[in-house]
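May I ask for a protein sequence together with how it folds?
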Amino acid sequence: MRKYVAALVAVTALATAACAKENSLALVTGASSKTLAAKTARISVVVSAGGLQMPAGNISADGAFDFTARRGLMSIDASSLGLPAGVGKIETRVIGTVIYMKIPTLADQLQGKTWLKLDFQAAGKKAGVDISSLQQLQSNDPTAALNFLRGATSIETVGTARVRGATTTHYRARVDLVKAAGKVTADQKTALTNAAAILGDRAIPMDVWVDKAGRMRRLTYTVDFSKVRLPKSSGIPQRSGTLTMTMELYDFGISVDVAAPPAPDVADYGALTGEGSGIGSITK
């Protein structure tokens, strides 16, 4: 009788654990849709590089993003990288695949204009790189990272934590980008599939913090650049090192109004260099 009861308890415990794991998996994979349903949010990002021929330090950015319109604005602080005085804070505006950057110390080089325009779509066409794939690796568009979560596979519950005042559950997961690609729109599917090929590994580890409403509050993951593979036509040299990104979202549903700077104030990077916004020259 005791053996029967012990066996029953063991089976019940295993079944309960399995259900809990499935629930955790559903919470993480569903966090993408629930977060995007909020339409807008404030965003805070910290990027830390290890190697990559970059000065030691972090790059932090704060701003707001409209998930539906794919528009956002951010203030980037790169002062810890030891850049020239005045370059510490960079104002950016993101409109689709176009990024506008306001860098005061470049005024002379920009022929008196105050904004520098980088058109990643044009750069991708010139270099023969699928720009939508490269966008998956950018930190200025939170929708890309949110789509990653749709491919979560193995899940481990780490514990609870407060993120900017919100109670969250911390999960550790492996994210299969190809699996995620099967749960998004056609254009996003191609982007995620190609991103997996670029990263050299279709499954990447991620930590995610989900609040009681099922929305992602924090996400962190590391890219190993020794595995990254880009076509030679991109002009981007192979690098070693890592890049870790931590993103936090908060103040969901706020008003986000983003417009391109006045045309007379904008200098096009491609026109200045004669390289059509070449990706290789930007990243060297």
About this structure: The first strand starts at residue 40 and ends at 51. The longest helix spans residues 2-36. The two ends are 72 Å apart (CA to CA).
